[in-house]
Specification:
Elements lengths: L2 H29 L6 H19 L2 H13 L8 H18 L2 H24 L6 H18 L5 H9 L5 H24 L15 H15 L8 E3 L5 E3 L5 E5 L6 H19 L16 H15 L3 H14 L9 H7 L14 H20 L7 H13 L25 H20 L3 H6 L4 H10 L9 H9 L6 H14 L3
Parallel strand pairs: 1-3
Antiparallel strand pairs: 2-3
Helix pairs in contact: 1-2, 1-3, 3-4, 5-6, 6-7, 8-14, 8-20, 9-10, 9-12, 10-11, 11-16, 12-13, 14-15, 14-16, 16-20
The structure holds zinc ion.
The site of zinc ion has 4 residues, from helix 10 and helix 11.
Length: about 500
């Protein structure tokens, strides 16, 4: 290996170690940090990120990168070193194309806009957020111009989360699923079958839920010797290297699915991080292919596994044992139906599998129109409400349960929402391939045997870390480009049976 490459790897490794430390500080902030430490923690985080940024855009980094690109010219495009160099180049370009003044202004405005969002949501008053939101979209537009794009301004922003993905790809994906999903939602609403989920509401002591979570995520394959579970207001997964991948969850003592499915979801993210190969540890190839691919793993475990009939059969005895007041023997089928109840809701994060992606679609449409300048921020609440009515058949009674519900836009996350749906579509396509490879999977799941499934994911997805992009990886894994129909077919078959459509 060239000396230049060794030096480049060592440099890049420093930025990785700094961001791992920053993530640990952030995990602490959201779990155990005393509230008085907030100001000091913000300083610590800012200092680390400044040092990491300076290292990543240094002249030395630039020189080494150029030398390595020259050294590796002519090497096979598929080699680890060539791919690693591409990831470092992409990171370098992202870090250097945006002027420091713009980045500082975004960081400052994020704090302001977040505070406005909190006030606006509490007061149910969109006008308290509108000016800050307008400015955030303006900053995003400026950023997109610096990053560059050829077709649509949205291309520059989605590319940050889904390398290589374009506005046209996302629009095509949604135009395929939109008519089928809305039809399914309306058919379910018109169904004579009503699904009762009352057994999921009651008294579920948090201690019992905690012990259930430990047992369950351990059974799935989340290695707790290299991870841990804590509580936080917003569940998340935080990785500081493959040997330290932590999750947080949130328990509701009156509603069982909240903690249960948040835990399975985050464990899905964590197993992906733990499956990043040891040979990539501390390099640019460690981690996940993209934000959407990460979400495909969490949604696969949460929904395709966790809301399957086989999983309900597996988990049921645990529920009877821990919550005898709510569950009596023989209720597996009731549980299966209850965890799959479909009902349009105002709130995205509470949405079921069928309606969830329509929530994402609304956000994608609105943010791309605002970026392109065809929708004004002042018209956003009306546009939001009319699309909720047309896609989901419900209208928010106020902006707090409508346009003010998400933290993303005020936090500067513009172009991010489609990754949720990309994750779902990937999960459906992977699930189809898994079904062919593991014909006995339902029986295995019903017996609590998750190792064959995890091994399939390890071999076909996790072992590649960041080496391949989404489009390449899904084609390698399933033999086809990303396609929406597997996911929609899965939903249609599953819910046609439950709701006798
Ligand atoms: Zn997730």
């Amino acid at each position: 290996m060239s000396d230049n490459l060794n030096q480049l790897k060592a440099r890049f490794n420093q930025t990785i170690r700094l961001s791992e430390a920053a993530r640990l500080l952030s995990w602490d902030q959201q779990t155990y940090m005393p509230s008085a430490a907030a100001a000091g923690r913000a300083e610590q985080a800012a200092t680390i990120s400044q040092i990491a940024h300076e290292l990543s855009v240094s002249d030395e980094m630039c020189r080494l990168l150029e030398r390595c690109e020259a050294d590796l010219r002519g090497q096979p495009d598929d080699s680890d070193d060539v791919r690693m160099l591409q990831v470092i180049r992409r990171q370098y370009d992202l870090n250097t194309k945006l002027p420091a003044t713009l980045m500082a202004e975004v960081a400052r405005h994020q704090a302001i806009a977040h505070a406005c969002w909190q006030r606006a949501r509490a007061a149910n008053d969109f006008s308290a957020l509108a000016p800050a939101l307008e400015k955030m979209f303006d900053l995003a537009r400026q950023g997109a111009e610096y990053l560059g794009y050829s077709d649509h301004i949205y291309d520059a922003l989605i590319d940050i989360y889904e390398p290589g993905m374009k506005y046209a790809d996302v629009a095509a994906m949604f135009s395929e699923i939109k008519p089928r999903l809305t039809r399914l939602v309306y058919a379910i609403a018109a169904s004579k079958v009503s699904v009762d989920d009352s057994l999921l509401r009651g008294s579920f002591p948090v201690d019992q839920q905690k012990s259930l979570t430990q047992t369950l995520v351990g059974a799935l394959g989340y290695d707790l010797a290299r991870g841990r579970i804590d509580e936080a207001a917003h569940p998340f997964c935080s990785s500081s290297g493959r040997e330290d991948v932590r999750i947080t969850t949130r328990y509701n003592p009156e509603l069982l699915p909240q903690g249960l499915y948040a835990s399975i979801h985050e464990a899905g993210h964590a197993m992906y991080e733990q499956g990043s190969p040891a040979k990539f540890e501390g390099t640019a190839l460690a981690g996940a292919a993209s934000t959407g691919f990460h979400e495909s793993q969490s949604r696969l475990w949460e929904n395709l596994v966790g809301r399957s009939r086989a999983f309900c059969q597996f988990i049921y005895p645990f529920l009877v044992e821990r919550f005898p007041g709510s569950f009596a023997s023989g209720g597996e089928e009731l549980l299966y139906r209850a965890v799959n109840r479909v009902t349009p809701t105002m709130i995205r994060v509470e949405a079921d599998e069928v309606t969830y992606n329509l929530h994402v679609l609304i956000r994608f449409e609105l943010e791309s129109e605002m970026l392109a300048g065809t929708l004004n921020v002042s018209d956003l609440p009306d546009a939001w409400n009319s699309r909720m009515e047309s896609y989901l058949g419900i209208t928010p009674s106020n902006d707090a349960e409508g346009v003010l519900q998400d933290v993303h836009w005020s936090g500067g996350l513009i172009g991010y929402f489609p990754t949720y749906t990309i994750g779902n579509l990937l999960s459906g396509q992977l699930w189809h391939a898994i079904g062919n490879a593991l014909p006995n999977l339902p029986e295995q799941i019903s017996r609590g045997e998750f190792a064959p499934l995890l091994e399939w994911l390890r071999v076909n997805v996790h072992q590649y870390g960041q080496k391949y992009r989404t489009a390449e990886l899904i084609e390698m894994t399933t033999g086809e480009p990303l396609s929406a129909h597997y996911f929609v077919d899965y939903l249609t078959a599953k819910y046609s049976e439950i709701y006798r459509l």
